[in-house]
């Protein structure tokens, strides 16, 4: 199960809980600290597909100040603008995200990632 990855923020309690949940299951995921190594727009688009969401906002932290400052809540905001904002402000990506092959889940609650393992 070496192909399992977690987009992790060690300062986030949910992220730490999700990583511990994986480790408790005997899984040693590749840990990607996405704030230090931000995803590209192409990687974010792929992640959006893996998550299976119908709206890019579902993978974003819409309560962050940067979301409001970038005007991302405007009705005419495009997906391209939202992906670009997540590249510029990686903290806008909802966390943690566990990726297993072509599927991904946000660990809120942490147990939700179990359905793709």
From TrEMBL:
<dbReference type="InterPro" id="IPR006660">
    <property type="entry name" value="Arsenate_reductase-like"/>
</dbReference>
<dbReference type="GO" id="GO:0008794">
    <property type="term" value="F:arsenate reductase (glutaredoxin) activity"/>
</dbReference>
<comment type="similarity">
    <text>Belongs to the ArsC family.</text>
</comment>
<dbReference type="Pfam" id="PF03960">
    <property type="entry name" value="ArsC"/>
</dbReference>
<keyword id="KW-0560">Oxidoreductase</keyword>
<protein>
    <recommendedName>
        <fullName>Arsenate reductase</fullName>
        <ecNumber>1.20.4.1</ecNumber>
    </recommendedName>
</protein>
<dbReference type="InterPro" id="IPR036249">
    <property type="entry name" value="Thioredoxin-like_sf"/>
</dbReference>
<dbReference type="InterPro" id="IPR006659">
    <property type="entry name" value="Arsenate_reductase"/>
</dbReference>
């Amino acid at each position: 199960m070496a192909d399992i990855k977690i987009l992790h923020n060690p300062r986030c309690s949910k992220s730490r809980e999700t990583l511990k949940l994986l480790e408790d299951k005997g899984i040693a995921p590749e840990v990607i600290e996405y704030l230090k190594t931000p995803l590209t727009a192409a990687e974010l688009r792929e992640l959006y597909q893996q998550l299976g969401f119908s709206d890019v906002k579902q993978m974003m932290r819409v309560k962050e100040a940067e979301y409001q400052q970038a005007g991302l809540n405007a009705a005419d905001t495009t997906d391209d603008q939202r992906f670009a904002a997540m590249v510029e402000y990686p903290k806008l990506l909802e966390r943690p995200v566990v990726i297993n092959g072509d599927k991904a889940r946000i660990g809120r609650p942490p147990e939700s990632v179990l359905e793709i393992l």
